Amino acid sequence: MAAETIPTLHYFDLGTLGRGEVIRLFLRDAGIEFKDIRHRYGTWSVESDKFKQQGITRTGKLPALIINGTILNQHVPILRYLSRDLGRYDGETNHKKFQVDAVADNYIDWRAQWVANIGNPSDDYKNKFLPMYYAAVAKYYSENNGPYLLGDKITYADFAVYQSVDNDERIGALPTELPAEIVKLREAIEGRPNIAAYIKENRPNKA
Amino acid sequence: MSTVTLHYFGLGSLGRGEIVRLFLHELNIDYEDVLYTYDETWPSVNKAKDVSLTGTLPVLEIDDLRLYQHLPILRYLSRRAGAYDGETNHEKYLVDAVSDIYNDWRTGWVAQLTAKSPDYQATHVDKFHRLFTDFYSRDSSGPYLLGNKPTYVDFAVFQALDNDECIGCAPNPLSEPLTKLKEAVLARPNVKTYLAERATAK
């Protein structure tokens, strides 16, 4: 990675909600210093063309990570870019890489549903979609005995799944009973040295 | 080698499974198609036959594995072939980013099947047509996202154009970079016959 400039993350002032926070967690965990720019969420839709012209985002959407002189959009592809750059946070064999990718893809489907349910989560989302999502993801986790998807080694998908739990909790939609694999993942992430304090600071209600 | 089997719905060229079919043809991998009816009976059929753990299709059986989620399947097949992806980290990112944008397009397309919104073409199709065109304009040395080198995402974007056309919502006019992509995929030796037969069946 180019040492002369530190990466800049552009996202919204949404606390831990939304796609950008997954990247923040990942960067902190990896020990990568970055500029954390938080734009006002409310005015983004009218300003997105301006930011596009300024070279902050290519697609008009956020998050955008400016790194090594390029603008990167789309949050899960950004995680994979960083993982390849670091040579860590992914599986090693084709099958392991697939498992990580498949869980991340389940998370992407989850995110689309979550965005549609922020204001007032529907019964369908809470009682049907979420139990199915967490059960499907837990099934992948059960293959390697946890706490992470691939066992002892953390990958980029773990941060994404962790954020789905966090974000569902914050909109009051998290199922009361989560699969044991997901509970175990949550504890493991919250205990990671580089991010434990950061997570705790942003979760004032949790002991 | 064990038989390769693709489980999907009987939807012709529509939907996620067809991209996997097209890509298997491109890779010259023989496979067996198992088709299910796309209606309210699917959950009980799935339960009885135990096809998909997530309840979603496509599912690809290959190398003694059951693979889910169509884009991860394409990436698995690309790594297996040692081809159809970028070479540098940034090239791989571009292929991944456009496939993620395609995924966003797909979510909207699926919703439109039931929503039948009158503005779908003016909003959704137009927005993604611009995004795809922007990315396909960056390397004009060839028709594909990465110029002369086809990657898995080209098949996904090709199918997005096809599927919008199938529901009567093709981008009009189709931009030059995307017209070139469409022509290039249609002419690829391993998929040419398959796509020609598919067009006649429509």
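qc> Chain B touches chain A through 29 residues (CB under 8 Å).
qc> done
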